């Protein structure tokens, strides 16, 4: 996706809300593991949160932990003419696991059908150590009791 569905960066804040309202229930239903987006010139990763029960007239108005939800990664920090988007909401929202306004890049190493390793590196510190890392576990594969087609 281009615009992030979850971002606590002040630049372009909530611009993806219309898309979130349409697509998020499908992401949760079909156990999508990760959504990558750009648009915001900074880095941020979420926990598994969803806001599929959002009700502006008196119900839930904030995202809540949801083990079936994807992890949302905003990685628009590869470089640009405008510079970094360095302002974030304060305090950091509960859904936001890691955020940083610096140039960087990421790697995603698919290990097998169930595991992938994700690493984000900041480019401006000269270190080859990941600043943010996680192991993604395939929710669909593990919860389908062996009913996958041979094409997987």
TrEMBL record:
The keyword Ribosomal protein does not apply. Gene3D superfamilies: 3.60.21.10. Pfam families: Metallophos_C (PF14008). Keywords: Signal. InterPro entries: Metallo-depent_PP-like, PAPs-like, PAPs_C. The keyword Signal applies. Residues 69-127 form the Purple acid phosphatase C-terminal domain. One of its GO terms (molecular function) is acid phosphatase activity. It comes from the Eukaryota. This is Purple acid phosphatase C-terminal domain-containing protein. It comes from Vigna angularis var. angularis. The lineage of its organism: Eukaryota, Viridiplantae, Streptophyta, Embryophyta, Tracheophyta.
């Amino acid at each position: 996706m281009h615009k992030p569905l979850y971002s606590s960066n002040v630049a372009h804040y909530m611009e993806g809300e219309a898309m979130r309202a349409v697509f998020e229930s499908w992401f949760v239903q079909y156990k999508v593991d990760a959504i990558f987006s750009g648009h915001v010139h900074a880095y941020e990763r979420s926990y598994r949160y969803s806001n599929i029960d959002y009700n502006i007239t008196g119900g839930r108005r904030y995202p809540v932990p949801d083990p079936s939800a994807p992890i949302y990664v905003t990685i628009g920090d590869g470089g640009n003419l405008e510079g970094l988007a360095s302002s974030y909401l304060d305090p950091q929202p509960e859904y936001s696991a890691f955020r940083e306004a610096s140039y960087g890049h990421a790697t995603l190493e698919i290990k097998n059908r169930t595991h992938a390793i994700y690493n984000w590196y900041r480019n401006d510190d000269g270190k080859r150590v990941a600043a943010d890392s996680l192991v993604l576990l395939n929710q669909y594969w593990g919860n389908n009791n062996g009913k996958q087609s041979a094409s997987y």
